[in-house]
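Internal tracking record. Fields below are filled automatically when a chain is submitted to the structure queue. Please do not edit lines marked as system-generated. If the sequence contains nonstandard residues, flag them in the REMARKS field before resubmitting.
Queue: standard
Priority: normal
Entity type: single polypeptide chain
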Amino acid sequence: MAITYTWEIKSIHTDSDDNVEHIKWRKIGTDDVDNLQGKVIGETSLVGDPTAEGYIPFADLTEEVIGNWLTTATANRTTRLNAFIDGQILENRLTKRDFPWG
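SYSTEM-GENERATED OUTPUT FOLLOWS
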């Protein structure tokens, strides 16, 4: 079973100069067997610097660019986030049963 992880951007918050400072997101994992999903919700703060090399103005941002930012910003938590998502997918495979006694 392989799991594909994607970002869903819930909201973007900017300062008065349209520099992105805060992103609310959902990371979703989908398995390739049954299309079962797990997800984790989070927020990431960034510091937009219009003088930095590679700066992208707000009007030119894409979901892919934001996703790449989030991948970089959460790199130290990737294993933990993915494990949480994987656990949800595993739990969705299980069947909750009544006790076999009265």
